[in-house]
Write a structure and sequence with these properties.
Blueprint (H helix, E strand, L loop, with lengths): L2 H39 L5 E2 L7 E2 L4 E6 L2 E3 L12 E5 L6 E5 L4 E6 L6 E7 L6 E3 L1 H7 L3 E7 L8 E7 L13 E4 L2 E5 L6 E2 L4 E2 L10 E10 L6 E10 L3 H8 L3 E10 L3 E6 L4 E2 L4 E3 L14 E4 L9 E9 L7 E2 L2 E7 L5 E7 L2 E2 L2
Parallel strand pairs: 3-12, 4-13
Antiparallel strand pairs: 1-2, 3-7, 5-6, 5-8, 8-11, 9-13, 10-11, 14-16, 15-16, 16-23, 17-21, 17-22, 17-25, 18-19, 18-23, 20-21, 24-27, 25-26
The structure holds calcium ion.
Length: 357
């Protein structure tokens, strides 16, 4: 065998070796490496667009059914007396996805442009039978969040707006024709018809005529809202209806006023005097976190919980006082402005007495 033939045989062997190794490498890449890389970089919610099965999207696209049964926050019983109008909008907040008035389902189609996000408007309208328990609705439904006032229909009344997060919806599986999501909605039946301030329970006032400021508290409770129901407060004031009362304030005989009112069971709203005295109106107008007292959306929800007693809506009016005349009486009026779920307001008042003894 010539040396040339030896060289040729060796070269062919090397080439064959390289080809075999290369083929094995390509096979390994195709079989193991590339699928692994693809898996790492494909969003976990990636699904097939139901219009075009060659096109993938990052989020679910297709028919979505939103079920939203209602329950009473009082005892978790089904609530079927009335429903708010619900409107679900696409991510642009302009295009209607679907709606429900007196049913408990919304069906629409998620589009690719939604990127898994819809928006929900809850509109109580003219119903006066209930308030939405938004804190519980939000805590009970992880898909819902980002509560905001939304006048979605531009009628001047704010509705409840929130985001619906559907970014986790998985692709349709065999036999499925749509995806479904459920929200549990909670309401407090409303009862504002008989609201009133009850008689004063006790007063700790004594010695108003002394030269040293002491803390005094008048307490009592509001009644007229039945157990299992609630009402919303949009304004809290302590007014001084006569000039003598006002003088006590302006001469510095009364200061550090605060008001607390109970609800639920053993919970209270407490509002402090933070420069809230209004000379012209002879009142303290407390900041209760209400941006607009004509909008039910902003109201503070008071409700009568399961194990609470008839004095659940107890009030305490605190003052510091000194330098009154002997036997003087200080007679402020506690005044709450409530709003029903349709936006109609009313007031409840109670005169309380601090007396020098
Ligand atoms: Ca509106």
């Amino acid at each position: 065998m010539s040396s040339a033939a030896k060289i040729g045989t060796g070269t062919i062997g090397k080439i064959l070796g390289i080809v075999i190794m290369g083929t094995l490498l390509i096979l390994a890449l195709n079989t193991y490496v590339w699928p692994w890389i693809t898996k790492q970089y494909t969003p976990p919610a990636s699904v097939i667009d139901d219009d075009d099965d060659t096109h993938t999207t990052d989020y679910y696209v297709g028919i979505l059914n939103l079920t939203h049964p209602y329950y009473s926050s009082y005892d978790d019983s089904s609530y079927t007396s009335a429903y708010p109008d619900l409107k679900a909008y696409h991510k642009d907040k302009q295009t209607l996805f679907g709606s429900s008035a007196d049913t408990s389902e919304i069906t629409g189609r998620m589009e690719e442009e939604d990127s898994g996000i819809l928006y929900l408007a809850m509109d109580i309208g003219a119903d006066t039978q209930y308030y939405l328990d938004m804190s519980r609705i939000l805590s009970a439904n992880s898909r819902l969040g980002g509560l905001f006032p939304w006048d979605y229909d531009n009628d001047g009344t704010l509705e409840y707006g929130m985001k619906i997060d559907c970014t986790d919806l998985s692709p349709l599986t065999g036999g499925e024709t749509m995806k479904e999501a459920t929200f549990n909605m909670y309401v407090w039946p409303a009862d504002v018809a008989g609201l009133a301030g009850t008689s004063q329970l006790n007063t700790t006032a004594s010695g108003l005529s002394g030269a040293v400021y002491y803390d005094y508290t008048c307490s009592g409770y509001f009644s007229g809202c039945s157990q299992g129901s609630g009402f919303k407060v949009v304004k809290a004031e302590v007014t001084l209806p006569d000039s003598g009362n006002a003088t006590y304030v302006e001469d510095g005989q009364v200061k550090n006023v605060w008001l607390s009112v109970g609800y639920a069971k053993d919970q209270t709203y407490t509002w402090y005097d933070t420069g809230s005295w209004e000379y012209s109106n002879k009142r303290w107008l407390f900041d209760i976190g209400v941006d607009d007292p004509t909008q039910e959306y902003y109201g503070n929800l008071f409700f009568y919980g399961r194990t609470a007693s008839a004095t659940v809506f107890s009030y305490s009016l605190h003052i510091q006082a000194a330098n009154f005349g002997a036997s003087a009486v200080f007679l402020p009026t506690i005044k709450l402005t409530y709003i029903n779920s349709a936006g109609t307001i009313g007031t409840i008042s109670r005169v309380v007495a601090f007396t020098d003894s």
